[in-house]
Amino acid sequence: MIGVVGGGIAGLSAAYRLKQRGHDVRVFEASDDLGGLAATYETAGDPIEKFYHHLSKSEETIVDLAEDLGLGDAVEWHVGKNAYYVDGVVHPMDKPWEILSFPHWSLYDKFRLGMLTLDIDVRGGVPKFDTYERLEDFEDVPVEEFAREHTTQNVYETFFEPLLDAKFGSRKGDVSAAWLLGRIKFRGERDLLNGEILGYFDGGFGRLLDALVDAVGRENIETGTRVTDIETSDGRVSSLTATDGADSTNHDVDSVVVATMPDVLEGLTGYACDIDFQGTVCSVISMEESLLDTYWLNIADDAPFGALIEHTNFVSTERYGGEHLLYVARYIQDESEDVWQQTDDEVAETWFSGIETLFPQFDRDAVNWIRTARNPRTAPVYERGYLDMVVPYDLGDAVADGLYYAGMASRAQYPERSLNGGVVAGFECADRIDGRETGIEQPNTPASESAD
Questions:
Q1: What is the rounded CA–CA span in Å between residue 257 and residue 238?
Q2: CA distance 286 to 265
Q3: Which end of the chain is more exposed for a tag (fewer CB within 10 A), N or C?
């Protein structure tokens, strides 16, 4: 049997791939719910994810998985409109003429930023098309230094700095330029007349999770069951111990895929990971009326949140029984921060007050409900030297043969963590297990994931 620790999308993807290849698999999930960060709330219509999700056109593996599971027709592509709130004004930032009319940038500012997004280095006056090919070349470059040098001082101060503040807070000075460059590359296809094309599932990402569970077999998944030990014998994993809170059971295993956060990996095996993670406080607000004219609003303002994301300006309100659904979120670098310590009612008051400051027309009486989720480790801090700290898929050399890692500290979750990255990591571990048994072993850093 192959044991999979973690019932999020990475663990379920690994289990699915292994089942496809004829392996006996059992998934152990410590919580009562499957899906991890893709877990959902109920609405008046379709479920809504507790933490916001969408797909970029560059994320192909998860789309292929949906096709394999018979959900190809459920993947829909919509325009995800973006805007930027600066000095009390919402500036749409999708169409070329909207970007050109942004009043806080000169024509030269816009030219330099535009060239960077097109992967063209115009420093020195001679365009170069190969400067940004390798993310590794910028791993040790501070993001602030990079943004100033490759665009302009004004673009950094009016655009990149507020976004970095919202994303990384007090840790922004540690962030690598490779993350920013990779994030630009990560973005997908754009409709030049409308904006970025983003994907979502008809019915939500829960449909993909349900299909994975069905394909793996519910009888092969144990929820409310925590793996407490992984044992080795003669340098190879031999068994794992799982408890449901009342009884502990020992399972003989041929291999184990740990598809959780690296602190769990360390607790089970002693393998330490130096990557730091940040948390998120994220609320979904159901409203009778729309607040914004855009999907994603970045905030360059002294607000208690970094962005407002009106999901139903991306997916029709008809899917949710007419509810207008707004995400309000803030990244947390330290659990001592006020928002993390607040009760749900206090978080609601913080969000409502912040929204009222930006949008005085906001009507609290038009709010149907608000639900808040917290997670202390929703995203890595992509600091300088990050690639040297990722956990290998195959931990045979570092710990014991037969031990594999598919969690958020894997190479697949760089330069940005995503559900697609979870699928990739799960598949990579499954392919290595299957390849080991068939004599076709995979490298620990496949060419398909090397930074480009």
A1: 13
A2: 37
A3: C
Side chain identity, residue 292: L
Instruction: Write the pLDDT tens digit of every residue in 205-244.
Output: 999 999 999 999 999 999 999 999 999 999 999 999 999 9
Instruction: Specify the residue for token string 């500290």.
Output: 409
Contacts of 437 (CB under 8 A, 6+ apart): none
User: Could you tell me the two tokens for 231?
Assistant: 């044992």
CA 150, CA 48: separation in Å to the nearest integer? 39
pLDDT, tens digit, 9 for 90 and up, residues 47-85 = 999 999 999 988 999 999 999 999 999 999 999 999 999
Per DSSP, what are the bridge partners of residue 4?
Answer: 27, 257
Q: What is the reported pTM?
A: 0.91
Contact 327, 308 (CB under 8 A): yes
Query: What is the SS3 assignment for 42?
Result: coil
Contacts 24+ apart (CB under 8 A), 304-313: 304/330, 304/339, 304/350, 304/351, 304/353, 304/354, 305/166, 305/329, 305/330, 305/351, 305/354, 306/163, 306/165, 306/166, 306/167, 306/330, 306/331, 307/166, 308/355, 309/52, 311/48, 311/52, 311/284, 313/81
The answer to whether the CB of 121 falls within 8 A of the CB of 137 is: no
3-state secondary structure 397-429: CCCCECEEECCCCCHHHCCCCCHHHHHHHHHHH
* Of residues 410, 402, 439, 452, the one with CA closest to residue 427: 410
C-alpha 206/C-alpha 147 separation (Å) is 37
The candidate with the shortest Cα–Cα distance to 265, out of 429, 449, 427, is 429
| Amino acid letter, residue 342 | Q
Round to whole Å and give the CA distance between 301 and 84: 10
CA distances for 237 relative to 16, 71, 358, angstroms: 21, 36, 55
From CA 339, how far away is CA 313, in angstroms rounded? Answer: 26
Q: How far is CA 258 from the centre of its chain?
A: 18
